[in-house]
Amino acid sequence: MSLESTLQQAAADGKLLETSLKNIQSLLAGSTNPVYLLSVQELVDAGAWTELNDRFFASLKFGTGGLRGRTIGKIVTKAEQGTAAPGERPSFACVGTNSMNEYNVSRATQGLANYCVKYRKNAGVSGRPRIVFAHDTRHFSTEFARKCAQIATDLGCDVSLFDGPRATPEMSFAVRELRADAGVMLTASHNPAHDNGYKVNFADGAGIIEPHATGIITEVNAIKSESYTPLPEAERGELALLGEEMDEIYLKRVETLMLQPQLLEKAKSLKIVYTALHGAGGVLVPRILRQLGFNLLTVPEQDIFDGRFPTVASPNPENAPALAMAVALADKENADIVIGTDPDCDRMGVGVRARNGKMQLLTGNQIGSLMGWYRIKTMFDLGILNDANKDHAVLIKTFVTTDLQAAVAKAYGINVVNTLTGFKYISAKLEKYEQALPAEVKKNYRDLSEAETRELRLKYSKFFVFGGEESYGYLGTDFTRDKDGNGAVVMFAEVAAYAASQGRQLVDLLDDIYAEFGYFLESNHSKTFEGAEGAAKIQKLADSYVNNPPTTFDGSPVTAVKDYSKGGHKDEEGDDIPKEKMLWVFLEDGRAFAVRPSGTEPKIKYYLYGKQQPKSGKFIAEELVAAKEKVSAGLKTLWTAIEEDVEKRLV
Question: Which of the following is catalytic: 106, 160, 172, 189?
Fold first, then answer.
């Protein structure tokens, strides 16, 4: 029986989804790559229908976050393995329309290049577009980046390509510095080693939002083949490599995040252990910390670039196992804090020495609250912020980020703005504030120093003090328009130096914040449903909350349900909040939870919230202990109730 007949029969028997059949046919018809045919044939011969459905049940859609998917299949075919030895990265990326491979990378780059060319033409801007391409240390990231550069230049775009792994925020910075039209980062952030992705930022350096999101998505999804016809040689773009020179420009900006460098004189005993987790953070983080004068150790085994991330189960610094080697080194060397960044160095996780001498990992909410509190407090202490200009200062956070940060900001009299999940929405606010500046000062804004831009924003617009999201992403400036692991390391190290200069531990500072502003606790959970069947379950769950919202939960009446998928919501500045698949449930007893399907992973996420604030003044020590116990217990029972409810909704 021929391959086509076997596929048709499998679809008729219900083993192969109809969409999988159509996508296999489309891929094989539109390509002459022998690896594609050999891989499909091998999986068919093995009867690996689940694997084929996972690879082909859909075409990997280019969304507002770009692309993200498996670049190594659950089953690796012999054709994909090629000449690679067992245990090594396969020679070829995972074959499939729903996978991260050259087929989808080519489609994405063709569409992006087409959009940039058309956008400039429609805007009446002469010259070729410029696109910045960067990559982390993941499997195939280097090859994908080079492939992208080739396609973009062939289609009439000038390209700036980093000469090795770099952090996502440096890509964003380079877009702004070079006045490029767009930037692309080949990364899957903190996803497992088998994934990769394609993340697009626009000319402001931020992740794409409307109208560019729809424009780019339309162009990309219109491309059905990886093949394309290069322009005549005279019309093609030029390629330039980015390296040390761009690093230096970026690092000088990152250094300005240190508000009180003199603290290091009082905190010379502070010792930091840093791990890059085999990722791009190893390029610049150790360098910048040592230049600033911090006492730094790194984890040698995890300094090595390796897309297998062989020393960790997952390269996610918010998970304790990922930081285990750094903690072990910190214990051996009696270090005070542990810091880790994810593969593309846009997220940062930390551990701090607790009162019992053991290393305690902080949540993303706690990390952000410490940095936000310190930066607000210090800017007032230094006179950067004062009663006359504080109305022009703003802290920005996502809805699902702790309200402790909002409580701190409001107590100091500065503005708070909540955005949807995704750093692009925080960055969109930064662009709004830049565009609000008078034309005569705005034209050379990107060339000004941090102090100069701050003065302009405080006078004419809004000065961004700090921003972040609970998922370990932070930003303390607007010279890059993406969450910045490099900058976050500097900001957190300064908070640690401040604590050391006061003869105190970071956990003491955190309790001081709780005592003054209230005890806020968050608990994040998720349910994972992989493959085609999993996607259907996630959709069913998300729909059930919208169509059948709860009226009581864990013994407490529901006082409000906010469904952001229907639109019609505005933020604190009166701006429209885009539609988002996110639903909030508020309980009468003060607890709340939010439900949101992940845009990058096969998960549906749950965010749980509890709080207790002092009735007057501050919590005394005993009151804070009691508040912690009560709030923690409430979130535990809330999650149990959610899990039971999930099972009922999936029946």
Answer: 189
